[in-house]
Amino acid sequence: MDDTGKDFSKAVDNEEVNWRLRVFDSLSYPTMIIKPDYTLVSANQKFLQLFGKRPEQIRGEKCYTFFYNKDTPCQAEECPVMRLLKTRQGQTLPWRKQGRWEDRVFSPILDDHGEVAYIIESIRDVTQVKMLEIELSGIKELISRVVHSSASAIVAADRKGNIQLMNRAARDLLGVTDVFERTIYNAEQLYPPGKAKEIMSMLRDESMGGKGKLSGAPVTILDAFGREIPVEMSAAIIYDDEDNESATMAIYNDLRKKLEIEKQLQETQKQLAQSEKMASLGQLAAGVAHEINNPLTGILMYASMMLEQLDSTSPQRQDIECVIEDVNRCKEIVKSLLAYSRSTDFQRNIIDVNQLVEQSFRLTRDQKIFRNIQIKKQLSDEMMLINVDSNKLSQVIINLVINAADAMENKGTLTVRTYRNKPAGKVYLEISDTGCGIAEEHLTKIFDPFFSNKSRDKNTGLGLSIAYGIVEEHDGQISVSHTGPEGTTFRVELPQYIPAEN
Ligand SMILES: Nc1ncnc2c1ncn2[C@@H]1O[C@H](COP(=O)(O)OP(=O)(O)O)[C@@H](O)[C@H]1O
Ligand SMILES: [Mg+2]
Fold first, then answer.
1. Is 415 near ligand 1, meaning CB less than 6 Å away?
2. Of the residues 203, 238, 254, which one is the last residue of a structural domain?
3. 490 and 353, same structural domain?
4. For residue range 79-93, what is the model confidence (pLDDT) as tens digits?
5. Are 264 and 358 within one domain?
6. Is the CB of 92 within 6 Å of ligand 1?
7. Does the beta carbon of 431 lie inside 6 Å of ligand 1?
8. Domain range for residue 452?
């Protein structure tokens, strides 16, 4: 090689070195080169600026001295250089200092034999990314907290219906435990068969609250045990940027309490309507009873006089006796009507409800209609005082018991039960039979005066209306609490008497 040649190759070398140095210096990340023995070889401008050093202050320093002010290398597992030497693969060391986050990235420079000749360490400022990450995870955390603390049940599922999220309220509503979570994996299982598809098509229907939305629809869902729960449901399909369906979410609000209150309200309205009807019927009955009472007394008087005047052998005697008997029957009805219309005297006394039951049953004991009826008494152990006209209430119990015996055609089981609701201050008396039950269409009529579906000669259809009048007069309530082919239960509710304290 001549001089020129040498010069030429030198020139190329210089250019090459120059070029490489420029690249090194132009790197926008602070970067430096370390030897496998931890000696710093060189650093680029950015690095020198960052640490406020000149090149000669760096060259020859050990990295552990430069960064950590130590005399010996760091522990193997925490030193990325050592890890890199072992694996010959790049390493990243997250680094935090004074409110800044850095990723220190170590890359190997291999020699011709594939051994690590140098290590490039470059420092990347990831503060902004980290801040965004923190912000994002804060938002995520907030959303998750909002979702989980919501009183409404929230369930989200992916496109295939796999449940991805179920908040605490949803788990409570559906009775989902960890064991169940594994079994309820598809949203379809939250609905009765076929209903999930119907809901999806309702969701996709633009005319029902807009495309992908459904709001406040009453539906029935199934809990983890397959029990039905009425809920109000709002749901949405979640679309991705290309308008494809990517997920669905639903919010459920339990309607059981609301429905229960509505039912109670209806019940109260029904009772109110009934008591209004009874009040006007009562007035009418009282009026009629008064009007009829006087002529009846007249008829009875004249008939009795005629009977006295007739010869003991007269063939008309029997007819007159019939008249008298029928008039007496009419007078009984009038008396009952007057009782029902609250026009007779009222004498209250304080009595234990169980004692009242015993008294009333004693009156029925010897009657032959009870011979084949088993009487079961389930009387409360507690003393439950009521302040009532016990003769009148006995009449209520007797009427109910006779009706029960009639319904059972004089054979079956009659149960009388007493209990109370202490906080509400109510005492209850129930008479149940194993009789024929009451037809739905009769339920609204049985308390009406003269309603009866029994033979006319013995039954007046006044028993329940009298009972109703008496109970109402005691600020109580009488109702059919159950009826069906297996029998009927009548319930009488009365205010409990609470003695004043001294
Ligand atoms: N325990 C009962 N089981 C079935 N039906 C009943 C019962 N109690 C009452 N009823 C029905 O209510 C009607 C009215 O009863 P009530 O006023 O006592 O009149 P009566 O007994 O004279 O028919 C009865 O005719 C009967 O149809
Ligand atoms: Mg009766």
1. no
2. 254
3. yes
4. 899 999 999 999 999
5. no
6. no
7. no
8. 347-502
d(C-alpha 218, C-alpha 230), whole Å: 7
CATH at 286 = 1.10.287.130
Stretch (H or E) spanning 463: helix 463-473
Is 72 a member of any domain? yes
CB distance 404 to 414 below 8 Å: yes
Q: How many angstroms separate the alpha carbon of residue 446 from the centre of ligand 1?
A: 6
Q: What is the domain-level CATH number for residue 84?
A: 3.30.450.20
What 8-state DSSP symbol labels residue 27? Answer: -
- Closest atom, ligand 1, to C-alpha of 464: 17
Q: pLDDT tens for residues 340-354?
A: 665 456 789 999 999
| 128 within domain boundaries | no
Count CA atoms within 13 Å of residue 188 on its CB side. 9
Q: Is 235 within the bounds of a domain?
A: yes
Provide the whole-model pTM. 0.50
- Give pLDDT tens digits for 443-456: 989 998 889 998 87
Read off the amino acid at residue 213: K
215 with 154, same domain: the answer is yes
For residue 400, how many other CB atoms are within 10 A of its CB?
Answer: 26
Tell me if residue 74 falls in helix, strand or coil: coil
Query: Is 412 near ligand 1, meaning CB less than 6 Å away?
Result: no
